[in-house]
Amino acid sequence: MSGDVIDNRARNRFELVIDGVTAHIDYERKPDPIVLIHTIVPKEIGGRGVGTQIIQGALDMIRAEGIKMVPQCPFVAAFLKKHPEYNDLVAG
After folding, report:
1. Whole-angstrom Cα distance, residue 55 to residue 69?
2. Which of 23, 2, 14 is closest to 60 using CA atoms?
3. In whole angstroms, how large is the CA radius of gyration of the chain?
4. Which end of the chain has the smaller Cβ count within 10 Å, N or C?
């Protein structure tokens, strides 16, 4: 499994394509903070760590952009509890 997370601003989502199937995190830009609304990992690529990979990639891109985020998505919020090294990105 490999792939790079991209920021598809035209569709307001971070995307990761694995084996031709796209996982994504929908977001809303305010522009700062960015609100991470919902994570979708299609069943065809589920159970392979794709959710973790897309969240890490998205958070790394957010950090590089120098903005904050709001983890509205429960999956992202759960990830942050296990990975406190990203807590500096949480707005407010």
Report:
1. 12
2. 14
3. 12
4. C
